[in-house]
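User: My advisor, Dr. K., asked me to get a structural model of this assembly before our group meeting. I'm new to this, so sorry if the format is off. These are the inputs:
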Amino acid sequence: MAGILLTNVTNMQRIESARAEAILEREVEGGATMISSLIRRAQTGDRAAFEQIYRENVGRVYAICLRILANSARAQELTQDVFVRAWEMIGTFRGESAFSSWLYRLTVNVVLVDLRAKKRRTARVLVTDDLSAYDKASNPANPGSAIDLERAIALLPEQARTVFVLHDIEGYQHGEIAKITGVAEGTSKAQLHRARKLLRETLEK
Amino acid sequence: MSCEKIEPRLHDYIDGLLAAAEKLDVERHLATCVNCRGEVEFLNSLRRQVAALPLHIEPPRELWPEIADRLTPKTSWWATAAPRLKNIFAGENYATGGWFAWGMRGAVAVAALVFAIGGVWFLVQTRQSAWQVAQLAGAPKIGSQRLVATGHLKVGEWLETDDSSRAQINVGMIGQVEIAPKTRIRLVRSRLTDHRLALARGKLHAEIWAPPRIFFVETASALATDLGCEYTLEMNDDGFGLLHVTRGYVALENQQGPESVVPAGAFCEIQPNRGPGTPYSENASEPLRAALTQFDFANGGSEAIRTVLAEAREADSFTLFHLLFRVVPAERGRVYDRMVEFVSPPPGATRAGVLQGDRRMLESWADKFGLGKSWWRYWLPL
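Assistant: The format is fine. Below is the predicted structure of the whole assembly, which you can bring to the meeting.
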């Protein structure tokens, strides 16, 4: 029974993922696609259109926030901040890049600004988070190992985790990471190597 | 080549960042080294596992209603005005060539011209690299030059007043700053979004009518950011200072501590290496002020907090709000309990939620104190 449920869940996720990819493809292809029409409508203040944009992208935005912050409550708050900010800034989107790239880059910026602000504060509570947040995220091929990996990523030190998520999951190059995080390219590389080394230690325990 | 030298390159090898010759070196080493082969196998397997991770993770709860609440309506003046303007210029709805249509076209054209000229003038004024300075008393100096009646303070220049002189600076077009006797101040920056003075010592009184976060005063111990306000800031040579806000809000921050947002009718002390302390009301009792100084600058700890809580009155609740996340977690509950004696929690805010730093609950609390939201995300110490 549990196996069937799990299969259904993973199938649904696969469908969801495929749907998102299809939308992305339509957007990349250009033309009179639905997403670009939604963007145009949202730019003129159409909330219903913006809500559709939100529905299509919330999973990806939340995943970026959650993986970098390793804190589900914070990730939910920043996901909200990202969409509020996107609403405020959507008028500046001119279509030079894919809308999804624009939105995910905005997400990374919002998260990094938050991390920098957090560093400035002395009196704070350290929340090493609820790793159960990853229970929903699973690997269709091997759910157990995906959760293990997610948990291991969440346990990485903040800087190493940030670079690992940006480089290995989100596909940023070291040059871009250096630019957006304000560290040297060499530091970005060193943090990535450190992250992978620590992951090996955790996963092979 | 040894494993120590090869190991850092294994990541570049996996990431495809090596030049052909280097790649060959690594592959030669791998052919003979079991350990490094193991490392490459792990890195490859990690790569496969990462590639299989879902790019989407659904949040555990519905976030849209809260987002929708925060979306401000977009100003659609252009959407409304554009078709009308188009009609006017196209002559639709008006008899083409009629006096009314031509009159409307003329009026719109003149308005556009005035708007454009005004915009350019505003940009030039706000970007000017020198601010007008007027002598109010005695003989203030700009650099080594005595100021007679009026002059200009350029970026990088110092304005200095002696025991008997005073001056007034026009901050571009966004406000005025009065410089008291025995003050030394420098114009650091004059940009559209960044009007910045550095106060080395002395006293200034600023009245700013620009939007928040455009006017800044740097001091040795803290940065004062205008949030739409009027205030007096005094610093001595050793970096000790006092801020008194008489209208609006001022944010004080430095690298050492959390930001303080000081509302009208409140003071905030500043100390070298410690930055801004906790803001307190003009009417706060003397023991409360003394205890805050102990807490902020002399590691007063629990003893000082006990005094603050005992002395606090309703007007001090914003002080307690600042303290909520400055005290050690064990004392946070006591601060919260005292605070709710003066200000009832906003709907939906719970003790546990606030103590855990629930952002929405804290935002609604901040609203209750009239502290606004614009600065919130930069201040919230969680």
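One thing worth pointing out at the meeting: Residues 130-205 of chain A form a domain with the Arc Repressor Mutant, subunit A fold (CATH 1.10.10.10).

User: Perfect, thanks a lot.
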